[in-house]
Design goal:
This protein is an all-alpha fold. Helix 9 crosses helix 10. The longest helix is centred in the first third of the chain and has 13 residues. The radius of gyration is 19 Å and the shape is elongated.
Amino acid sequence: MKRVLVFTLACMLMVPGFANFKKDLRKAKKGDAQAQYNVALCYEKGEGVEQDHTQAAHWYTKAAEQGYAKAQFNLGYMYSNGRGVTQDYYEAVKWYRLAAEQGEFFAAHNLATCYRMGYGVEQNHEEAFKWELLAAEEGNDEAQYNVGNAYKRGEVVEQDYEEAVKWWRLAAEQGNADAQLFLGVAYKNGCGVEKDVEEAVAQIEE
């Protein structure tokens, strides 16, 4: 799901209901990081409690400071977009990095975006590619699409149309429309793959 400034938020997780919210709130106040994360999700989504982004950021911070990776990622997103906190890309980068270092590939993708665009960090395409590749290898379709583009352009890595097609295909198989289009064009022109007009049409029209 694309959001502001192409940052991604992984809110595909189930949000606890009201009964669980009350239980989690009691545990959160005692310092339970998982419960603090659950409470933050409830406040962010308005599930079981009135929506309150400030409270969401508060509880994400509590969990993030204990090293809870999903909370670190979501807190980074809050700072990226100024939700419940003052927008601060430097803080966003800090929390994205901590989450990415624990294997949160959505965080790795967003960190790559920060490096590519120069948000909260000096622009660095090598670092952007490093984190994008990590996210791509873990299955993030946007990252796979971007890695394919890097190989197509010869940006940071040696130009390699076969590698570009490989990554576009992986993203296209997950329904990424941009990757499907680029893959279709590759088939149409025979770049990095044997020319196949029928497959080109199938990818472009999918």
